[in-house]
Design a protein that fits this description.
The chain is built from 13 helices and seven strands. The chain is an alpha/beta fold. The protein folds into three domains: about 100 residues, Ribonuclease H-like superfamily/Ribonuclease H (Nucleotidyltransferase, domain 5, 2-Layer Sandwich), CATH 3.30.420.10; about 100 residues; about 120 residues, no CATH class. The strands form two sheets. Strands 3-2-1-4-5 form a five-stranded mixed sheet, with helices on both faces.
Length: about 350
């Protein structure tokens, strides 16, 4: 590559920093969105580096069409190289500076198909947050009228109509109308989540890798599709541990003077996918706790040993880490999960 181009992405205005292959500064200027593509087309074969943020995957696909090599860097790895105040010009310089470091870790680029599935996950994630907020608000407002409703969407939909029809409680006409509208909103939200879950199930049946991942204990259609998006063809990760580290499922280290000190997990990477793996692993661990020894296989005995030594929570994280490694191996080697 003849030069390196660092681009600080934005909605309308982009800051472009260009250096030669030897590191000599050639330009640092601002370009509007309308002129960016034309500018990149006119450049010789270059290495283009951007932060992994909104629209980065779109621009990566566009720039590759013109023969450029494109890389995305996590913002947390760019920030240490920023000198001076935070502004677009210094951000673009920091992106190029970070890329020049040997061993820099890059974020895998997502295809359009992967982005489609990720969009479904983001919409479902928002609906789940809205549902939780709506449930809490209904229960909180109900307590102001001496109406105590148990936790859970299904319990609210089962108990709230009875309270709305009860003419002897303290609910006024206005409060009944308001709670009735909130109940309808909750029902609509639940219906939208069910529709999205059906879409995930359909995607799982059409994708060979997703079906392969669903065979892992603790991974269902939701987790399998999210893993498919994150892994791609698995070529961006050296091994299973690299992928587990990418998801923040490995211990944080704080060592000094030859004394090794391991802390809790790093929690880096995609918190949503990490949460799916943790929740799936937790369901497996809870079933194993009371499982008779004669019905235990290799995985169950391994989990029981960790539970005995370190407790349930560490066993959950250990299984989530193990599942991430297994997922990488299944996608990388195109093999099936074998229960032992």
């Amino acid at each position: 590559m003849e030069q390196i181009i660092g681009i600080d992405l934005a909605k309308r205005v982009f800051q472009v920093h260009i250096v030669s292959a030897q590191g000599e500064k050639k330009a640092n200027k601002m370009i509007t969105r309308e002129k960016l593509t034309t500018f990149i087309v006119q450049q010789p074969p270059s290495r283009i580096v951007m932060e992994a943020c909104g629209s980065a995957n779109y621009w990566s696909r566009q720039f590759r069409q013109y023969g450029h090599e494109v890389k995305q860097i996590s913002p947390q790895y760019v920030a240490p190289f920023r000198m001076g105040s935070k502004n677009d010009k210094n951000d673009a310089v920091a992106i190029v500076e970070a890329d020049s470091r040997p061993g820099m870790r890059y974020v895998p680029e997502k295809s359009i198909e992967q982005q489609d599935i990720q969009c479904l996950h983001r919409v479902r994630q928002r609906l789940m947050k809205n549902k939780t907020a709506l449930i809490n608000q209904i229960r909180g407002l109900g307590l102001e009228y001496d109406i105590a409703i148990p936790e859970g969407a299904h319990k609210i939909m089962a108990h709230l109509p009875d309270h709305l029809e009860d003419a002897e409680n303290e609910l006024t006409t206005l409060s009944r109308e308001l709670l009735h509208e909130m109940l309808q909103e909750l029902q609509d939200n639940q219906q939208r989540i069910k529709i999205l879950d059906l879409r995930f199930a359909l995607i799982s049946q059409q994708n060979e890798d997703t079906l392969r991942l669903e065979s892992i204990p603790g991974i269902g259609p939701l987790g399998a599709s999210a893993l498919t998006v994150a892994l791609g063809d698995s070529a961006d990760f050296q091994n299973g541990r690299h992928f587990a580290s990418y998801l923040g499922l490995v211990p944080k280290e704080h060592s000094s003077g030859g004394k090794v000190r391991l802390l809790g997990i790093t929690k880096r990477g995609d918190g949503y996918l990490r949460g799916l793996l943790i929740h799936g692993a937790r369901s497996v661990v809870y079933r194993v706790i009371n499982l008779p020894e004669e019905r235990c296989g290799g995985l169950q005995r391994w989990l029981k040993g960790i539970i005995t030594r370190s407790g349930v929570n560490k066993a959950v994280v250990a299984l989530a880490n193990k599942n991430a490694r297994i997922a990488w191996a299944l996608i990388n080697q195109k093999t099936e999960y074998i229960v032992k």
